[in-house]
Amino acid sequence: MSRTQTWVDAPSKPHWTPPPGAVDAHVHVFGPEAQFPFSPKAKYHPEDATPEMLFALRDHLGFSRNVIVQASCHGTDNEATLNGIAKSNGRARGVAVVDPDIGLDDLKTLHAGGIRGVRFNFLKRLVDNAPKDKFLEIAKKIAPLGWHVVVYFEADILEELVPFLEAIPTIVVVDHLGRPDIAQGPDGADITRFKQLLDEHPTIWTKVSGAERLSPMGPPFDDFVEVIRPVVERYPDRVLWGTDWPHPNMEHRIPDDGTLVDVIPRIAPTAELQRKLLIDNPERLYWPERLSGNERA
Ligand SMILES: O=C(O)/C=C(\CC(=O)C(=O)O)C(=O)O
């Protein structure tokens, strides 16, 4: 498999500036392959996207912190993600992908390395299988650590996933809003069903990210803004945002990260919504020690 670069080397400077302390809550690191080889089961073979490159982007865009999410190309070996967190001087935490038979000692090691959640990936193009029973075993193991679960799926399987989501004993964060069909508009079936899920389950949160993946219109993502702004306004305490740098599998539509940041004030139009989206909410999941006891989720 030839290696792919899925990010721009010199993204534009956003016109909008994130507030001090802002968290970019969905990024990945790739490799470096010489130090942290990719999984033999990886479905794509990216160029190295190193922690140093990530931190340069963070500073360029005006963010203070990152949440590094283990990408499928590294399988269940979280060393590249842990390396990124370790190099961040406390300015990154992470989400791991683990095997169901993982023991408490290994989970504690991940916790010490800054991991605060696990990810379950249901995208067939990314993983060979997604065993719900094994995922629930993992969810039960991580719950006592105060971690949460991140779930990545597409809208067509939401209905069949509901009992599984309901069985997870922690906060659940759905990546990219469960990938609704944005072309259906703000009252479309996909986003309406997703909002019903959030209405009925106060422990389900979502990342209002993925404009570059979900918008048929492309930049400046007017279609995404029209559909997603009502979600931010309706669930202000349960939304996170991330660039998704280095944009795995986006080699045919590589986004400009500066343009993505400029979507934020359009989906979260007030300073209060922006503070919740970029600071308060991610802190509850990733830096809870910074909050007073009664604010904890
Ligand atoms: O990271 C994302 O948002 C999306 C991905 C890649 C991914 O999740 C993974 O490799 O684990 C995708 O849709 O190809």
Verbal overview:
Residues 23-286 form the Amidohydrolase-related domain. Residues 1-21 are annotated as: Disordered. It comes from Allosphingosinicella deserti. It is an enzyme of class 3 (hydrolase). Its EC number is 3.1.1.57. With 297 residues, the chain is an alpha/beta fold. It has a single domain (23-291), classed as Alpha-Beta Barrel (TIM Barrel). The chain has 11 helices and 8 strands. 45% of the residues are buried. An 8-stranded parallel beta sheet has the order 1-2-3-4-5-6-7-8, with helices on both faces. Strand 1, helix 1 (51-61) and strand 2 (65-69) form a beta-alpha-beta unit. The mean pLDDT is 97. (1E)-4-oxobut-1-ene-1,2,4-tricarboxylic acid binds at residues 28, 71-73, 121, 126, 152, 175, 244, 248-249.
Q: Strand-residue fraction?
A: 5-15%
- Quick one: how many beta strands? 8
The structural domain count equals: 1
- Which parts are unreliable, with pLDDT below 50 for 5 consecutive residues or more? none
Counting helices, strands and paired strands, the structural category is alpha/beta
State Rg: 18 Å
Secondary-structure element pattern, one letter each:
EHEHEHEHEHEHEHHEHHH
Rounded mean pLDDT is: 97
CATH class: Alpha Beta
Provide the helix percentage: 25-40%
The CATH homologous superfamily is termed Metal-dependent hydrolases
Protein name: 2-pyrone-4,6-dicarboxylate lactonase
Keywords: Aromatic hydrocarbons catabolism, Hydrolase
GO molecular function, one term: 2-pyrone-4,6-dicarboxylate lactonase activity
Family: Belongs to the metallo-dependent hydrolases superfamily. PDC hydrolase family.
